[in-house]
Amino acid sequence: MYEILKTVNGPADVKKLNANELEMLAHDIREALFNRLTQIGGHCGPNFGIVETEIAMHYVFNSPYDKFVFDVSHQSYPHKMLTGRRNGYIDSACFKEDSGYTNPVESEHDWFNVGHTSTSISLATGLAKARDLKGGKENVIALIGDGSLTGGEALEGLDFAGSELKSNFIVIVNDNQQFIAEGHCGIYYHLEELRRTKGTAANNFFKSLGLDYIYEENGNDIQALIKTFQKVKDINHPIVVHICTQKGKGFKLAEENREVWHWSLPFDRETGKYKVSFPAETYTSLTAEYIVNKAAKDKDFVVITPAMPMTAGLNQELRQKLGDQYVDVGIAEEHAVAMASGIARAGGKSLLVTNSTFMQRTYDQISQDVCINGNPVTILLNYVSFDGLTDVTHLGIFAVAAFSNIPNLVILAPTSKEEYLNMLDWSVEQKKHPVMILIPGNAVTSRVADKEYNQLNRFKIEQIGEKVAILALGDFYQRGEELAAHIKAELGFVPTLINPRYASGIDEKMLNDLRQNHQMVITLEDGILDGGFGQKVASFYGDKNMKVKNYGLKKEFYDRYNPEELLKQLGMTTEQIIADIKREC
Amino acid sequence: MYEILKTVNGPADVKKLNANELEMLAHDIREALFNRLTQIGGHCGPNFGIVETEIAMHYVFNSPYDKFVFDVSHQSYPHKMLTGRRNGYIDSACFKEDSGYTNPVESEHDWFNVGHTSTSISLATGLAKARDLKGGKENVIALIGDGSLTGGEALEGLDFAGSELKSNFIVIVNDNQQFIAEGHCGIYYHLEELRRTKGTAANNFFKSLGLDYIYEENGNDIQALIKTFQKVKDINHPIVVHICTQKGKGFKLAEENREVWHWSLPFDRETGKYKVSFPAETYTSLTAEYIVNKAAKDKDFVVITPAMPMTAGLNQELRQKLGDQYVDVGIAEEHAVAMASGIARAGGKSLLVTNSTFMQRTYDQISQDVCINGNPVTILLNYVSFDGLTDVTHLGIFAVAAFSNIPNLVILAPTSKEEYLNMLDWSVEQKKHPVMILIPGNAVTSRVADKEYNQLNRFKIEQIGEKVAILALGDFYQRGEELAAHIKAELGFVPTLINPRYASGIDEKMLNDLRQNHQMVITLEDGILDGGFGQKVASFYGDKNMKVKNYGLKKEFYDRYNPEELLKQLGMTTEQIIADIKREC
């Protein structure tokens, strides 16, 4: 098992292998991929498809002298195995040592810690520019593809590299005929044209931007790749190497259904069945159901996603049902937001959905294209909670701090099924406000909720009490309930429990009223404190007689943490908060 | 004077004119441009060059049934004059009625309030999508060019439109051979190729993305434009109309120096001399001087700007001096930030400079490409102050709220010449932190300042006092000085005056120490309160015995306001604050 892979402790060992051994190495790597992915999940199809490419890269170039930059770095597993990190794949005791993304802390062969798309070309131009200033001679290579080419940052990078860099720069475009989901965009149809003509089409996107171009159709053939890479090694100008690979190569299920197997949870190798199961009703299933029903009833309603339909539960079947009322713009968040604004401006009802962390890519479009114009776009964010995605590059804990300080944007933080669906429907129907809704990360719970939310920043008192008022926002509402119960049991009084509902503003009237029979206000939020909800409350009470204690996460890039452990470290468990209250009251 | 222009109250009146009258109309519009621009300044070259295009657009299409979207909308003055708003140009008493950008509040012919680049195509795709859902037949036309094509949002939009829109969509690319500054990128060299071949080059960027394409070389010839626009009117698929215009057409100085006359202050029509003058030493001149000296001494130092060299005082002469140590990436902020990160990662010293408002376009790259990686990039932001740019699309008042809550980013707010230059030099030399420096908007003042800033969030006490502590951040430091003097004179005690220096964190030790002999802390900041500096202070003191009063702007899209009037409205004048203190102390 892993016979050849075990001989490889670094790129030098790859170079020693003959053609046959290199093939065996590819086989070992795929077995190692199966070993890790079936047990802990991760990016599946992208890594199965890129095995030969990364073997050939390490065979031809000299990392870390030559510098590799991996786009998203979700297809860097083979590279990691080839650079001393195979244990993170072959030994389950070591899985945690490997982040699943490139990471300079792990290895000198990794130049950046990345996890968002479309960044590799621009980052690599920086490495090339620094090399040129210092008079270096190393190759700088960006590996991009698998859907990333539609992102504005990648297009800006190509546009720059094509004319402004006058030195060695190699962009490997991994053309695996696949977006994350099914969406297409101009550039992907163009890649088809280039494939059809074996790279000879007169019309060539890359050349039009001033880049040199070479085509390699056998992207899963190590020897062919070695020859191609040898041709471009030490080249004195920027060039695109267009390689065609099979996404999911060597894993039949992933070859056959590229979308589903792009990323996976732990699964059974034979059947492909996930080893974990979900409740029948989740906020994701509720979202999908709402969308499909709404679209059927209302022809002005349109859903837009930058390649993240699954985050709204929109599988291939549902998307087909939606027809023209569904738009996947590819990985192009900026375009998605501006387009949604245009639709709203012309009287359409646009609902945009993606993961919280990716919405950061379009901060300015939310501010300028949407909010200055007051266009009634609804933006649905998934994975906002601190216990959703815990990779440093995918944290949702910054969403409220990032977006709640943009004027005109109403951010809603629902706390139950009824509240979520009512907010969603209100938002889609109203014509006055841009709205962002934080999809709950908790299990679905049920509670009566208001139908409309026109009066902004109107908090809701869910339990009237005294002395202490708990403002428990969004996914932390249930923790607020628990805290209230413990206060009653342990401290002998009933505190007031408030569901703020709005994360982007405060209910000044209610906060003023609380002063009558409360001496302490506690804010609980599922995100960083800096720039968030609680600090607005603290500022309001700053010159008044009210103790305020803000509970939330620190402004830090946490990475792969245990959520409950983190709360304990931060003094946010129910017991710890009770102790704080005892000191004050 | 303005004989024909005065007959035009809307597009219908344009359609009545014969060829000769249309020429006279163009003449009138240019006179009106001179009238406004010489008196109050604005976008100069872009509007002189686009006169014929917008006349022909209104002649051929039927606005507002047909929908025009203007990129940046800095070249929409002729359009505005043709849609009932000539008084904003011919009558100085009415200048203020016209914002200089498209604005739906002003006219039904304007679809969006915009001021940032590269947004028109995506916004227009939204109008087109809504039209298709509703079964409409109108033309949707985006007018872009003059440097905007390099922005990621525009490239994403073209990529989408080229393949996903299957209906009428017209993108007019105004090719005036000019960036904002001199920078080039692949796409602009490509436009040259298309001009050289009169649009017949086999290699065609737009076609490679799936767009149809038509070329019109006489972009300042009304009749030629009319014929071309008639050809594409009611077309049933997306098409790019590539027109060649002369930037600054009809204003000799602007034709000759396109960069300088892109935007201008009030000027003398004959000599081109500005009617206002500047002190010899400004923070801009200090920036330019620092950059040039540093570059000469240190070959690892490189300045990057997304088409905004003038905001760092880098004129053509200085840029030439900088040579390879200067990079203008074009309007491509995302690429600029990622490239700066790459340079820093490889040991270079990268300094990025632009206007505060444009940095919003690259929020995610600052967070992911720079800050997660901890790469020591220095970002210089100009026009951060509330009394700098007051157009709603160009406000700097959101900078601290937007960026100070990104982990690892150190934001410095200097308050004097010495402090600014020391911070700049410290930042460029240190290797541990991504740093953002807010260039002061005040007149240059002098005061002794520390040389190094390694100990983060260490505030500086500039005057030791009692009872009240004033934390006066950045450009509001001088207001803090004034307030301190008034407190002494009017209230009879000496308050403590603190220069926080760091806008991204608080000095917990100092804040704790203040509790000994202070009962009130006042924070003054030159930006919105929500998510900003003062709220962090309020949160810190929330559960302690200290009154905190945060002074700053509201979370609002202010537009073309009088700065001092605004402060008064917000209760932020020295007199008003003194009154607040009297109530508390």
Question: How do the strands and helices of this protein lay out in sequence?
Answer:
The structure is a homodimer of 585-residue chains.
Chain A (H helix, E strand, L loop, with lengths): L10 H5 L3 H22 L1 E2 L1 H5 L1 H10 L6 E4 L6 H9 L1 H4 L29 H15 L5 E6 L6 H13 L4 E7 L10 H11 L8 H4 L3 E5 L5 H11 L5 E7 L7 H5 L6 E2 L18 H15 L3 E5 L10 H7 L3 E3 L4 H13 L3 E7 H4 L3 H9 L6 E5 L16 H5 L6 E3 L4 H13 L5 E4 L21 E4 L3 E6 L4 H15 L4 E4 L8 H7 L3 E11 L5 H8 L5 E7 L9 H7 L4 H11 L1
Parallel strand pairs in A: 2-3, 3-4, 4-6, 5-6, 8-9, 8-10, 10-11, 11-13, 12-13, 15-16, 15-17, 17-18
Antiparallel strand pairs in A: 1-7, 14-16
Helix pairs in contact in A: 4-5, 4-11, 7-8, 15-17, 20-24
Strand content of chain A: 15-25%
Q: Which architecture of the largest domain in chain A per CATH?
A: 3-Layer(aba) Sandwich
In DSSP terms, counting alpha (H) and pi (I) runs of 4 or more, how many helices of chain A? 24
The separation of the N and C termini of chain A measures 64 Å
Q: Unreliable segments of chain A (pLDDT under 50, ≥5 consecutive)?
A: none
Main sheet of chain A, how many strands, which sense, barrel?
A: 6 strands, parallel
Report the largest inter-chain contact.
A-B, 123 and 122 residues
Mean pLDDT of chain A: 96
CATH class category of the largest domain in chain A = Alpha Beta
How many independent structural domains of chain A?
Answer: 3
DSSP summary, beta strand count of chain A: 18
What fraction, in percent, of the residue positions of chain A are helical?
25-40%
Overall body shape of chain A: globular
Q: What is the name of the CATH topology of the largest domain in chain A?
A: Rossmann fold
As laid out across the biggest beta sheet of chain A, the strand order is: 9-8-10-11-13-12
The secondary-structure class of chain A comes to alpha/beta
